[in-house]
Write a structure and sequence with these properties.
This protein has 386 residues and is α+β, with helices and mostly antiparallel strands. It is built from 13 helices and 18 strands.
Length: 386
């Protein structure tokens, strides 16, 4: 008699679902992806089931065909996750999704577990915005409490004169999603800790990753983050407390600001994360494989690294592949998505046994692609390590 292969259902059919399937099939798992779009890129590597997030009648056949469910992105309604949990194992749970979907709930929880954040205040009206700016000051950032990601749903206020423009930009979403004003943090650098927690409570983290963004979208990641030895235990403790508080199962990322050697909480992503893509090629077990292992109740894999890695994020359109493919220990990942401004269409990871070799490899690739500006900040950091 053949052994039953578990089928993992993934809510969301983007590149994260695609990479989950690519990592999980060698473990013996099968996949079924659900997405409102029949052209979602995960459909290239796994069966795709078309349904809307709120349409439980359409989702019922999906729920019947899977042994467990997880998420490709955090904006699947928490109510849908609740409904799905009555039919199958769901990880992470609806509680984690609900917190991560609301910036107010998220930052409140950070403070409750002892993770400091920038000052923040809720904003629902123009008058409340004026009061919040008076209390928090400028520069500050007005954000939608829900549905904002990759720089969307945000407006930076540089002076009191920006209040009207900020309200014009986000006043309409205020009624639907709510708003939050956050003090701007003049941070020294941005890092993230990507962690995984199993069904049995086992907890592991990958090394800290240092990240650079452009227009609110991740541009480059360097791992392990240089000079992060003292920060990793602190970041790990916060991530572990957060995971236990939410009874979390699977991979998540905790995005952090570093200011004067101290960590400030920025955001939590209840899923595999862009800043952890380097783990596919640079770690013993990738974030994608460990997420599948955790959700299906398998033992977790080693989160140690093979050396040093840098990840180039390709935004808008894919560059020429040859400069990456001809470099030693460089890896190309095309998501199979059409070009579009601001869209994540792929990434490349370059690995090396030491930082000097990594810097040389990434510089050669960047020069060939005319992207030295993209890598310059990371090269400066690596140069400062010598």
């Amino acid at each position: 008699m053949s052994k039953h292969l578990p089928t993992l259902g993934v809510m969301g059919g983007g590149q994260l679902a695609r990479m989950l399937a690519l990592a999980g099939v060698p473990l013996g798992a099968k996949f079924l992806v659900v997405d409102p779009s029949e052209s979602a890129c995960a459909g290239d590597v796994a069966p795709l089931f078309k349904a809307g997030w709120d349409d439980t009648e359409a989702l019922a056949p999906f729920a019947e065909r899977i042994d467990a469910a997880t998420f490709d992105f955090e904006n699947v309604p928490a109510a849908t996750a609740d409904w799905l949990s009555a039919h199958t194992n769901v990880a992470p749970g609806a509680k984690a999704l609900a917190v991560a979907q609301d910036r107010l709930a998220e930052k409140t929880l950070f403070n409750e577990i002892g993770l400091p954040t920038a000052k923040f205040a809720t904003v629902d009206t123009r008058q409340e915005l004026e009061a919040a700016v008076a209390r928090i000051g400028v520069p500050s950032i007005l954000k939608t409490r829900r549905m904002g990601y990759d720089g969307k749903g945000q407006f930076r206020l540089r002076s009191d004169a920006d209040i009207e423009a900020a309200w014009q930009a986000l006043g309409e979403p205020a009624a639907k999603y709510g708003l939050i004003l956050e003090a701007f943090v003049p941070f020294d650098r941005e890092v993230s800790v990507v962690a995984v927690r199993g069904r049995d409570g086992e907890f592991r983290v990958w090394p800290l990753t240092q990240n650079w963004h452009r227009d609110g979208i991740l541009s480059l990641s360097l791992a392990p983050a240089p000079q992060s030895e003292a920060l990793l235990p602190k970041a790990t403790a916060h991530a572990k407390t957060l995971a236990e508080r939410l009874d979390y199962v699977g991979v998540f990322a905790l995005e952090l600001f570093v200011k004067d050697g101290q960590l400030l909480g920025n955001e939590m992503a209840p899923r595999v994360h862009n800043s952890g893509h380097w783990t596919i090629d640079g770690a013993y077990t990738s974030q994608f494989e460990n997420h599948v292992r955790a959700v299906l109740g398998m033992p977790l894999g080693d989160t140690g690294v093979r050396g040093h890695s840098v990840m180039f994020n390709w935004i808008g359109q894919m560059p020429e592949a040859a400069p990456v493919l001809t470099e030693t220990d460089a890896h190309w990942h095309d998501y199979g998505k059409s070009a579009r401004p601001g869209r994540k269409v792929g990434h490349a990871t370059v690995c090396a046994p030491d930082q000097a070799t990594l810097a040389a490899r990434m510089a050669r690739i960047a020069k060939a692609l005319d992207r030295l500006d993209q890598v310059a900040p990371a090269l400066d950091v690596l140069d400062g390590e010598d």
